[in-house]
Amino acid sequence: MDIRGRRQSSNIEDRRGMRPVRTGVGLSLGGVLFLVVLSLLGINPLPFLGVATKAPQVEMQEPEQPYQETPEEATLREMTSVVLADTEETWNTLLPQYGVQYAEPTLVLFSDAVQSACGSAQAAMGPFYCPADQRVYIDMSFYHDLSQRFGAPGDFAQAYVIAHEVGHHVQNLLGTAEKVQAAQQRASKADANALSVRMELQADCYAGVWANHASRSRQLLEAGDIEEGLGAASAIGDDRLQRMSQGRVVPDAFTHGSSEQRVRWFRQGLQAGTLEACDTFAARQL
Predict the structure, then answer these.
(1) Is residue 31 predicted with pLDDT exceeding 60?
(2) 120 has which bridge partners?
(3) Which of 18, 167, 231, 256 has the most beta carbons within 10 angstroms of its beta carbon?
(4) At what angle do helices 225-235 and 155-174 cross, to 10 degrees?
(5) 7 pLDDT band (50/70/90 cuts)?
(6) Whether residues 56 and 94 fall in one domain
(7) Is residue 56 domain-shared with residue 72, that is, in the same domain?
(8) Would the pLDDT of 64 be above 80?
(9) Residue 134 sits in the same domain as residue 244
(10) pTM above 0.70?
(11) pLDDT over 60 at 50, yes or no
């Protein structure tokens, strides 16, 4: 990708070097619901505060010394910021055409572990999007894993990962995420997994939509970039990851889609450049 001189996003929150610290206990979701039910029944809930189920409270602790990034990390941070800015260009232009104003997400850089509104997370979990705080979380060490462990090198492979997580933010703004979560709560485990696959493949397709507009409108992509993106989509397919971790493939346990499916839906968004091309929920065959 040609990122020289391009705008960087202002929606970057750098938490590298910070550590989650348990500061006490607070009410868990179950405890809150318990007290709400008591209140609705006309019972004073205050005496029951001590018996409600409790969960740890976690805060992020500032490092003793400012985080010192390496030259490689500085380059990756710049790339991440430029890609995020470019996704803002695409979705700020595209979503209003569908009657939705784009609320730009914040991208949080962290190291080792982080606390989000969706709970605590370890770097080993990989990048993720939290709809509760509308933030994308990335430990940039994942870029190294993507290249060395999963065999998907290149800056556009890294950009695909960012665009995929931003795709989940688009789903949140469109109301897709809420509908899928409600359906999963009523479904069997296998059906819930199948819904998750459709959700993830749509995010892959949305990443392709971004790549389409980044290439056509802003000439961000260079020769070989598309191949890097397709390589990344293939590298983190459920079938490939299951073979790596357990030596066999269990399709019913898929949550993100096979390598072939991820490549196909990314390519579909890339070629079409429209949201209509990404309706994985209406597709008979993924």
Answers:
(1) no
(2) 115
(3) 167
(4) 70
(5) very high
(6) no
(7) no
(8) no
(9) yes
(10) yes
(11) no
What's the rounded mean pLDDT across residues 149-162?
93
Instruction: Compute CA distances 114 → 23, 109, 127, whole Å.
Output: 15, 9, 11
Q: Say whether both 103 and 188 belong to one domain.
A: yes
Whose CA is closest to 286, among 202, 209, 226? 202
Q: Where are any strands of DSSP class E within the chain?
A: 12-14, 19-27, 54-61, 106-109, 113-116, 119-122, 128-130, 135-138
Q: Which two tokens stand for residue 93?
A: 């232009």
Asked whether residue 216 is assigned to any structural domain, the reply reads: yes
Helix locations, 219-272, DSSP H:
225-235, 238-246, 259-272
What is residue 63's DSSP assignment? P
Statement to judge: residues 116 and 201 lie in one domain:
yes
Whether residue 5 is contained in a domain is answered as no
What pLDDT does 76 receive?
95
- For residue 139, what are the CA distances in angstroms to 50, 147, 148, 277? 37, 14, 15, 31
Q: Does residue 263 share a domain with residue 163?
A: yes
**Quick count: other Cβ atoms within 10 Å of Cβ 98?**
12
Q: Are 215 and 251 in contact (CB under 8 A)?
A: no
Position 50 in a domain: yes
Residue 28 is part of which domain span?
23-61
Burial class of residue 64 in the structure, from the number of CB atoms within 10 Å of its CB (0-12 exposed, 13-18 middle, 19+ buried): exposed
Which pLDDT belongs to residue 194? 93
Span 102-121, average pLDDT: 93
The C-alpha atoms of residue 84 and residue 163 are separated, in whole angstroms, by 8
